[in-house]
């Protein structure tokens, strides 16, 4: 009986999360404004870097991972900024908060949609990055996917929390990166290090310290977000 | 403010002034000049206490943020604000005194050493914390948001510490920065002076906290008076 009630409650919660993710995907499929701007922006960042770095002096495999993550980071910030501001229009956020949904479900829904938008964008950028920097990523694809997955998740956990916060500010577009960037420096350092090591052909087992740092970051900030999201999304 | 509170706060101020006076005498007259580094080494007696105060203040911000979210009392919000401002000031002092010492000793204003880097990131986190506070209208929303940032900012410190440490292990830092060289080879008079300075700075923290809290409470009072008398008619 008890387990049955638990399963029903779990299912209801998952349905709530799924509804929010679904809503975000439908909106995005209809407008296509977020995804296209993120993609083009990431592309522009990479191109600007190529013009500002002399690739005949610097080795592409040394500078490449950094450029790649800066592009992901900047494009990801655009996505995060939109994620809650979109809900502010027409008071959609008010509606979501009034719905009989747990606040953490709202957080997880937003986290999953931000995370998947960013991942899709990143995997479309990868081939372009490969061509422009002349780095062959295909033999290292599996560990690379793992690293990108862990790094992007860390960026999105804290990013989703802060974007739900900054959406309420007057200067939201400026405040999100100012609040977010200092906090995700560990993730950036870890992801760039791991990516360069992966590209150099080292196995994942040689970078367990970085992997555990990034994964710990992911887990701790998901836990903290669950605990404090109620205080952010309060009307 | 009650008479007793006023009295104890003025005692604290005088005590701090006295501690600083003795501290200055110890730093500039009593303690011998370090043989290798010369007079510039005396900046350590300001640098280390400032660093200690910065970390202490940020810890207090963390504690007060948790207490605010728990109890929802304006009091804790004021404490967190006061402590964050003091912390940022002392963290700035650390970032200023450090390069002044580093220039003649290392031959460079700034080195991307682990400790320097993490102090800089810490400074950025709490500057953004203050920006968030100043850019939001007073009220429950500002207090909640600030508390959230006060908590996640402090929890980030271990991650910053390890990431920056490992980041630098790829390029070993110069031998001079090694932390073992500081405390181990120090003369007792130097340790005593440092302790005195630490004590004086800690007293200063409480004086500043008291003053800042008083100012913030006065502001609240003025707001309340405005509401009661100016807008009610």
Entry summary:
The complex is a heterodimer of chains A (235) and B (233). Chain A has helices at 2-31, 33-52, 60-88, 92-98, 103-133, 141-166, 172-183, 185-199, 208-232.
Structure description:
The complex is a heterodimer of chains A (235) and B (233). Chain A has 235 residues and is mostly helical. Chain A has helices spanning 2-31, 33-52, 60-88, 92-98, 103-133, 141-166, 172-183, 185-199, 208-232. The longest helix of chain A is centred in the middle third of the chain and has 31 residues, at 103-133. In chain B, α2 (44-71) packs antiparallel against α3 (74-106), α3 packs antiparallel against α7 (188-230) and α4 packs antiparallel against α5. Residues 170-178 of chain B have low confidence and may be disordered. Chains A and B meet through α6, α7, α8 and α9 of A and α4 and α5 of B.
Q: Which band does the percent of strand residues of chain A land in?
A: under 5%
Q: Average pLDDT value of chain B?
A: 85
Percent in helix of chain B: over 70%
Q: Low-confidence spans of chain A: pLDDT under 50, at least 5 residues?
A: none
Q: Largest interface, with Cβ-Cβ < 8 Å?
A: A-B, 30 and 28 residues
H/E element string of chain A?
A: HHHHHHHHH
Beta fraction of chain B: under 5%
Task: Name the overall outline of chain B.
Answer: globular
Biggest sheet character of chain B = none
Figure out the total of helices of chain A: 9
The total count of strands of chain B amounts to 0
Task: Tell me the span between the first and last alpha carbons of chain A.
Answer: 36 Å
Secondary structure topology:
The complex is a heterodimer of chains A (235) and B (233).
Chain A: H1 2-31, H2 33-52, H3 60-88, H4 92-98, H5 103-133, H6 141-166, H7 172-183, H8 185-199, H9 208-232
Chain B: H1 3-30, H2 44-71, H3 74-106, H4 114-135, H5 140-169, H6 180-183, H7 188-230
Helix pairs in contact in B: 1-7, 2-3, 2-5, 2-7, 3-4, 3-7, 4-5
């Amino acid at each position: 009986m008890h387990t049955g009630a638990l399963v029903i409650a779990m299912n209801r919660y998952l349905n709530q999360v799924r509804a929010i993710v679904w809503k975000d995907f439908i909106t995005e499929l209809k407008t296509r404004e977020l995804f296209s701007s993120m993609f083009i922006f990431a592309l522009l960042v990479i191109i600007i870097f190529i013009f500002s770095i002399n690739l005949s002096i610097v080795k592409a495999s040394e500078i490449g991972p950094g450029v790649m993550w800066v592009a992901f980071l900047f494009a990801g910030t655009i996505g995060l900024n939109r994620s809650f501001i979109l809900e502010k229009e027409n008071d959609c956020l008010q509606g979501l908060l009034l719905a009989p949904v747990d606040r953490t479900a709202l957080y997880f829904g937003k986290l999953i949609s931000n995370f998947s938008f960013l991942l899709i964008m990143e995997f479309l950028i990868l081939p372009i990055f490969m061509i422009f920097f002349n780095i062959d990523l295909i033999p290292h694809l599996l560990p690379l996917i793992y690293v990108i997955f862990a790094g992007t998740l860390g960026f999105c956990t804290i990013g989703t929390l802060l974007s739900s916060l900054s959406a309420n500010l007057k200067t939201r577009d400026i405040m999100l990166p100012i609040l977010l960037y200092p906090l995700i420096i560990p993730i950036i350092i870890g992801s760039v290090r791991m990516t360069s090591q992966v590209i150099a052909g080292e196995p994942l087992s040689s970078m367990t310290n970085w992997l555990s740092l990034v994964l710990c970051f992911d887990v701790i900030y998901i836990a903290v977000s669950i605990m404090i999201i109620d205080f952010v999304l309060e009307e | 403010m009650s008479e007793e509170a006023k009295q104890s706060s003025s005692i604290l101020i005088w005590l701090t002034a006295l501690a600083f006076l003795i501290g200055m005498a110890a730093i500039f007259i009593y303690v011998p000049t370090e043989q290798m580094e010369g007079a510039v080494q005396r900046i350590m007696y300001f640098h280390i206490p400032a660093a200690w105060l910065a970390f202490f203040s940020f810890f207090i911000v963390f504690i007060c943020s948790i207490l605010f979210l728990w109890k929802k009392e304006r009091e804790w919000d004021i404490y967190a604000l006061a402590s964050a401002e003091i912390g940022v000031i002392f963290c700035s002092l650390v970032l200023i005194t450090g390069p002044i010492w580093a220039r003649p000793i290392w031959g460079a204003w700034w080195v991307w050493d682990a400790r320097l880097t993490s102090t800089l990131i810490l400074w950025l986190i709490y500057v953004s914390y203050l920006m968030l506070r100043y850019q939001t209208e007073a009220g429950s929303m500002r207090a909640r948001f600030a508390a959230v940032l006060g908590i996640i900012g402090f929890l980030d410190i271990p991650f910053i510490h390890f990431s920056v440490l490992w980041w630098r292990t790829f390029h070993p830092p110069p031998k001079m920065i090694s932390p073992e060289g500081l405390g181990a080879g120090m003369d007792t008079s130097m340790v005593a002076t440092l302790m005195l300075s630490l004590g004086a700075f800690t007293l200063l923290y409480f004086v500043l906290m008291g003053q800042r809290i008083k100012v913030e409470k006065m502001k609240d009072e003025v707001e309340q008076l405005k509401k009661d008398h100016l807008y009610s008619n």
